[in-house]
Amino acid sequence: MDIVPDSSTPSSAPCDAPCLARRIFVRDAVAAAAAFAGLSSFAPLHELAALSTRSGGVVHYPIPAADGVSIDKKNEVILARTKGEVFAFALSCPHQNTALRVSGKNGGFQCPRHQSRYEPNGTFIDGKATRNMDRLKIEHAGNEIVVDADVVYESDTEPAKWFAASVKL
Length: 169
Fold this sequence. Notes:
The protein is an alpha+beta fold. It is 18% helix and 33% strand. The protein has helices spanning 17-40, 159-164; strands spanning 45-47, 52-53, 58-62, 68-72, 77-82, 85-90, 101-102, 109-110, 117-118, 124-126, 135-141, 144-153, 167-168. The strands form three sheets. It has a five-stranded mixed β-sheet, with no helix packed on it. A four-stranded antiparallel β-sheet has the order 2-3-12-11.
């Protein structure tokens, strides 16, 4: 197969067939890597709007239909469903209050500032943070999940409440 250089591509030197083949290979490899990176970082992530918000930080959400993560930026709440449980987390990292991001690799979370990583249930994996993600008070009420964004449980100061802060479906 003969490879003919593309005359529309500027070049300072003539490119022989092996040179052009390398360029095509590198271009295609970079495009494939970018596509793969985009797919591997995909996680079920949704912007979440509260069904209703009452005074005192109590927020009502629909029950998540499937495993995934929803973020309510207005109320600074992360709602995560994983393995038959729903968790509500504070949006900020417990290390220095940077907004957390969803990590597509394990479905967990990562702090973009200091690279702390967390499992989908908020358990600390590694990084500069010194504890698990902060969980919020959460209850199951009919067809809704009710979160009190003003009641925060830290795993190191209230471990029993932190472990209990989930809804089993």
